[in-house]
Amino acid sequence: xxxxxxxxxxxxxxxxxxxxxxxxxxxxxxxxxxxxxxxxxxxxxxxxxxxxxxxxxxxxxxxxxxxxxxxxxxxxxxxxxxxxxxxxxxxxxxxxxx
Length: 98
Fold this sequence. Notes:
This protein is mainly α. Helix content is 69%, strand content 0%. The protein starts with a helix and ends with a helix.
């Protein structure tokens, strides 16, 4: 029984670390939006192709109008918004960490 408890505690610790990484923005966007994710859920091969086609300046994401970005995401991906796309990418990233 002690081994199961230890494994559970290790898993919870790892999950907490992953959540901290996501919350702090320490997970690179190209790791979240990797080529497998992009090919599966978008019209693009890579996050770079997505960014280049969009004409948005992702180096200054705060300057991007969220409504315009959501429209672009909705038109070119299987998602209705940028936040939905990021949430899904983060969920897949978390699954791969275990």
